[in-house]
Amino acid sequence: MSSDSYVGFFGLKDHPFSKEIVDRDLWLPSSKAALVSEMVEALEERTSVLLTGEPGVGKTCVLRVLRARLPEAGFRLTYCHNATLGRRDFYRQLCFALGLSPQSTAGAVFYTVATHVEDLAKERAHPVFLLDEAHLLHEQMLGHLHILLNYEWDSKALLSLILVGLPELHDLLQMRRYRSLYSRLHVRLHIDPLTPEDTAEYLRYRLKRSGVEREVFTQDAVAMLHEATTGGMRELDRLATGCLREAARKKKRLIERDLLPRVIDRDLIERDA
User: Which long-range contacts (CB under 8 A, 24 or more apart) does 166-170 make?
Assistant: First the structure.
């Protein structure tokens, strides 16, 4: 059965659990929606943010919703995801993201970025640098980022950082040598996994968005999916898609608990291969 067969079998308009979904259609449970509101408020106050969470619990989803929520007027959001670079190359990457011409030395590249931040302040635009996978940041960068936040004798908040990473990022930043950066991250947030209720609501929302409003997963199947994914949205997307494929092969329009073991076992085998 082709990958599109389950779409037609269930009368779906598209693949309901694909990551290719526009920002405005993203779903967040109330707890994660509250995180976005806290981040928007922090940026409006020109402070910096630390956001941590386990893999697949929705960090990127939260950031995409933040991007959609943050007013374009007054903010300049720049996203960087390659955190494994040394100081010079990191700032060169940031220059390219900002549309600037990078210089040759680390000091010159840093000066280019800092001057750009100061120029935006004159235009009444507040820059926000979003550094994803920040737990992978080189120790040179972790020891230097606080300097990027220091303007006019540390008396002006001209820039906000958002550091996003796994929970170990929080532990790393608490080390004594990074205390200057950690003390400047005034808002520190953590994303928890989905609750069982969140999982059920997420499945219904994504299916409804794709044109199916009836219940496709039984309560027992939802409970088993939640247990198998431990509240992770990325795992849930993959297993829910596997369930739809398996149900379509068996000509079942209702996904019940007895269908899941085969899907879960196959997923484990593919991950271990």
Answer: 166/52, 166/53, 166/54, 166/55, 166/135, 167/52, 167/53, 167/54, 168/135, 169/50, 169/52, 169/134, 169/135, 170/50, 170/52
Topology (CATH level 3) of domain 30-191: Rossmann fold (3.40.50)
| Pairing mode of beta strands 75-80, 126-131 | parallel
In whole angstroms, give the CA distance from residue 204 to residue 207. Answer: 5
pLDDT by residue for the chain (273 residues), tens only, comes to 444 589 999 999 999 999 898 888 888 888 889 999 999 999 999 999 999 999 999 999 999 999 999 988 899 999 998 889 888 898 888 998 898 988 778 888 889 999 999 999 888 999 999 999 999 998 889 999 999 998 877 778 899 999 999 999 999 999 999 999 999 999 999 999 999 999 999 999 999 999 999 999 999 999 999 999 999 999 999 999 999 999 999 999 999 999 999 998 876 555 544
5-22+194-272 folds as Helicase, Ruva Protein; domain 3 (1.10.8)
Instruction: Give me the residue spans of the domains in the chain.
Output: 5-22+194-272, 30-191
